[in-house]
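User: Here's a structure from my thesis project, written as structure tokens. My advisor, Dr. K., wants to see whether a designed sequence matches the one we expressed. Can you design one independently, without my sequence as a hint?
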């Protein structure tokens, strides 16, 4: 079937349209590619244009709650809304919480209200975060969705608040939603089409940029209550995140789900594997802890694997390998 969206002819093998907010970003971009690869019509929403934008069936160069975006929801009634846009990062939220509550809660409610009024049958998928768990007791790690959620940053609270809003809207208005709590997202598109932009803040990106640019690499904190003193995290490939979103759509998942690999790696583990991937020896230096960083944060993704056909495909070596391949392109 072929149709015209904003004067662009689109061949469709699946008769569903997905609106992806934050489509120019790291996760939103990969989600869009996954859906396009599987025959969906994807309309990408982002305030800025990146090379990845040419992959979309159509683009809206605007914020996710702009009149232009909301008019699209009203007039075109997309079947799926994947809400990846928002303000991220724990550290900056500690000094500027207003932006996080405005973008991640207030403006997101504006989008959600238009969806539930004009396209109540849409499947709303929300990019949440492991930051909703705060600084968990090591005895309850790996974390499951029913465990305590006590965020220690405005970023984490903003994500948890919107999860609660989605649950309330589902109960009162019957909306369909899936909230994915992403753990540490890394890697790059296995086909080399998309990845993180330069100056990313995540440890793998920072380490690889340090190697390429021959600059000092600093690990934040070496005095955590972990085996080697550095933070332990659950790393998940961005392509596995994207496939989970597609599976949620196709298998009708509803509710809150962790996305992780059920295992953790310390910051020093990451460095060791990155040295193997890059074939270099670039020892880190240690700096002070960052405010809001928990010592141990790993996921139990058993609920997602029990309720769906999704399984993580990539291990940490492959995650770093794909990121390294991406960073050696003209992105630094």
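Assistant: Designed independently from the structure alone:
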């Amino acid at each position: 079937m072929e149709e015209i969206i904003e004067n662009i002819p689109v061949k469709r093998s699946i008769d569903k349209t997905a609106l992806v907010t934050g489509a120019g970003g790291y996760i939103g971009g990969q989600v869009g590619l996954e859906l396009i690869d599987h025959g969906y019509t994807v309309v990408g929403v982002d305030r800025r244009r990146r090379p990845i934008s040419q992959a979309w069936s159509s683009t809206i160069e605007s914020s996710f709650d702009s009149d232009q975006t909301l008019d699209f929801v009203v007039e075109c009634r997309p079947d799926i809304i994947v809400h990846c846009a928002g303000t991220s990062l724990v550290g900056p939220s500690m000094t500027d919480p207003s932006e996080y509550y405005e973008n991640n809660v207030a403006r997101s409610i504006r989008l959600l209200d238009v969806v539930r009024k004009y396209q109540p049958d849409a499947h709303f998928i929300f990019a949440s975060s492991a930051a909703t768990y705060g600084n968990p007791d090591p005895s309850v790690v790996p974390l499951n969705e029913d465990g305590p959620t006590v965020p220690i940053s405005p970023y984490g609270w903003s994500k948890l608040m919107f999860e609660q809003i989605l649950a309330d809207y589902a109960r009162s208005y019957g909306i369909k939603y899936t909230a994915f709590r992403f753990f540490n997202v890394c890697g790059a598109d296995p086909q080399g089409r998309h990845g993180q932009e330069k100056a990313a803040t995540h440890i793998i990106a920072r380490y690889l940029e340090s190697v390429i640019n021959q600059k000092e690499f600093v690990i934040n904190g070496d005095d955590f209550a972990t085996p080697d003193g550095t933070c332990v995290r659950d790393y998940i490939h961005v392509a596995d995140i994207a496939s989970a979103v597609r599976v949620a759509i196709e298998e009708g998942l509803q509710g809150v789900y962790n996305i992780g690999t059920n295992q953790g790696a310390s910051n020093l583990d990451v460095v060791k594997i990155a040295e193997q991937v890059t074939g270099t020896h670039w020892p880190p230096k240690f700096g002070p802890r960052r405010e809001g960083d928990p010592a141990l944060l790993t996921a139990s993704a058993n609920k997602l694997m029990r309720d769906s056909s999704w399984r993580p495909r990539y291990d940490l070596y492959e995650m770093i390998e794909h990121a390294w391949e991406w960073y050696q392109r003209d992105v630094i």
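When you compare it with your expressed construct, this may help: Residues 1-12 have pLDDT under 50 and may be disordered.
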